[in-house]
Amino acid sequence: MSGDEDRHVSLESALAGMEAASHDLSDMVAEQWKVIDALKGELKRLAERVARLEDDREAGETDEEAPPPHY
């Protein structure tokens, strides 16, 4: 191979590696978005639960037992 051919092969090899890395990073970002969406849903569910518990407490309808009288 001549010098130009060597450079060409080297550049193609480097480009292929960069493309593979780009695809890997894209896959990781897509997976992270799935996790983020799941966490957002869980956070929303928990926030709604806390709000219901606070509303119940304000209304005097709590599932928690009152502390004994000596407290």
The major sheet is characterized as: none
Helix content: over 70%
Helix and strand composition category: mainly alpha
The shape, in one word, is rod-shaped
Q: Ranges with pLDDT <50 over ≥5 residues?
A: none
What share of residues are in beta strands?
under 5%
User: SSE order in H/E notation?
Assistant: H
Number of helices: 1
**What is the subunit organization of this protein?**
single chain
| Number of strand elements | 0
Q: How much is the average pLDDT?
A: 91
Terminal-residue CA separation: 89 Å
**How much is the radius of gyration in Å?**
29 Å
Structure description:
By secondary structure, the chain is an all-alpha fold. It is 80% helix and 0% strand. The protein contains one helix and no strands. The chain has one helix spanning 3-59. The longest helix is centred in the middle third of the chain and has 57 residues, at 3-59.
Key descriptive features of the protein:
mainly alpha; rod-shaped
What's the quick description here?
With 71 residues, the protein is an all-alpha fold. It has one helix at residues 3-59. The protein is 80% helix and 0% strand.
List the helices and strands and how they pair.
Layout: H1 3-59
